[in-house]
C-alpha cells in the first residue's frame, strides 16, 4: 500500500496561555518511519495531537494529501490516521481482544460483532499479545497493556500511524520488537511517526529523525545527519557516544554536561 502524506504547515499552538508550538513544518511520508525526539516540554505530544486532528492549531494547517484535515469527516479521519496516545490508561475491564477490536470501529467492526476480525488477529500477533487475548486489560502489567494498545492502533490499518512513546513501559526485548513492527509498517507503505526519548532506538530504526526544542523544529534528517554529539549536547545538555557499526548507527547519552557558567 502507498498512502497519502500527512503534513503540518507552519502550525502554532498555545496551551494554557503558553506557546507550545511555533511555526512547525513537518511532513510524514509513506514508507518512512519518523522519530520525533526532544527534551521534556518541547512540544512533541502537542505536535502529534495537532497532526492527528485532536488539537486545532492556533495558526497553520494540517493536510492529509491535498485535503485540509478539518475537511474530513470524523470517520474519514479515524480510518486514515491511527493514533496511540502515551500513558496506556484503560478504565474498563474489557478483554484485551475487545480492546484491540476497538480499532475496527471506524470500519464498522468492533467488539461484540460476533466474528473475529482478521485485522485484530494480525495486530495481536504482531505485538506478541495473543496469549492474553481473553484477560481483562485492567489485570495486565504496564508493558502487556502497552502492547495491547499498540495492537488497537495497528488494527485500524490506517495509512498513517502516529504513536506517542509506545516503548516507554516495555522491557528491552519488546522495545526492539515493537520498533521492528513499526519499521515493518513503514516498509508496507504507511507513514509512521513515533515520539520517543530513546536515542539508541531512534538511531537504529528510524528513517528520519526530527528534533523539537521549545516548540521549534531545530533539526530534521537521517539519524546519521541529526544525531550528532554537537547537536545532542546543544539540545539535551548531554555528552553522547556515537559509533558507526556494520549493522547501523549506535548513539547513547553518556553523561550530563555542566550548565554554562553565567557571564
TrEMBL record:
Give the family this protein belongs to, as stated in its UniProt record. Belongs to the ABC transporter superfamily.
UniProt lineage: Bacteria, Pseudomonadati, Pseudomonadota, Alphaproteobacteria, Hyphomicrobiales
Q: Name one Pfam family in it.
A: ABC_tran
What this protein is called in its record is ABC transporter
Top-level taxon of the source organism: Bacteria
Q: What does this protein do?
A: Part of the ABC transporter complex HmuTUV involved in hemin import. Responsible for energy coupling to the transport system.
CDD domains, per this entry? ABC_Iron-Siderophores_B12_Hemin
Keyword Transport among UniProt keywords: yes
The record's GO molecular-function terms, alphabetically, read: ATP binding; ATP hydrolysis activity
Describe the location of the ABC transporter domain by residue ranges. Answer: 6-239
Mind telling me which SUPFAM superfamilies this protein's record contains? Answer: P-loop containing nucleoside triphosphate hydrolases
Keyword vocabulary terms for this entry: ATP-binding, Nucleotide-binding, Translocase, Transport
Amino acid at each position: 500500500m502507498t498512502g497519502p502524506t500527512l503534513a503540518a504547515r507552519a502550525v502554532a499552538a498555545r496551551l494554557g496561555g503558553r506557546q507550545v508550538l511555533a511555526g512547525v513544518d513537518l511532513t510524514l511520508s509513506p514508507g518512512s518511519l519518523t522519530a520525533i525526539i526532544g527534551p521534556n516540554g518541547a512540544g512533541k505530544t502537542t505536535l502529534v495531537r495537532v497532526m492527528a486532528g485532536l488539537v486545532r492549531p492556533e495558526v497553520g494547517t494540517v493536510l492529509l494529501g491535498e485535503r485540509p484535515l478539518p475537511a474530513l469527516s470524523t470517520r474519514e479521519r479515524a480510518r486514515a490516521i491511527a493514533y496511540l496516545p502515551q500513558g496506556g490508561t484503560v478504565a474498563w475491564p474489557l478483554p484485551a481482544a475487545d480492546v484491540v477490536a476497538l480499532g475496527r470501529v471506524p470500519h464498522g467492526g468492533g467488539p461484540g460483532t460476533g466474528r473475529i476480525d482478521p485485522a485484530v488477529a494480525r495486530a495481536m500477533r504482531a505485538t506478541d499479545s495473543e496469549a492474553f487475548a481473553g484477560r481483562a486489560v485492567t489485570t495486565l502489567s504496564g508493558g502487556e497493556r502497552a502492547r495491547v494498545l499498540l495492537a488497537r492502533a495497528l488494527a485500524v490499518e490506517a495509512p498513517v500511524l502516529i504513536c506517542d512513546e509506545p516503548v516507554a513501559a516495555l522491557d528491552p526485548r519488546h522495545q526492539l520488537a515493537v520498533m521492528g513492527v513499526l519499521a515493518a509498517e513503514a516498509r508496507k507503505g504507511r507513514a509512521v511517526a513515533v515520539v520517543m526519548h530513546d536515542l539508541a532506538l531512534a538511531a537504529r530504526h528510524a528513517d528520519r529523525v526530527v528534533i523539537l526544542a521549545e516548540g521549534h523544529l531545530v533539526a530534521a534528517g537521517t539519524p546519521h545527519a541529526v544525531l550528532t554529539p554537537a547537536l545532542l549536547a546543544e539540545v539535551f545538555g548531554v555528552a553522547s557516544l556515537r559509533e558507526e557499526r556494520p549493522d547501523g548507527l549506535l548513539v547513547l547519552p553518556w553523561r550530563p554536561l555542566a550548565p554554562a557558567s553565567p557571564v
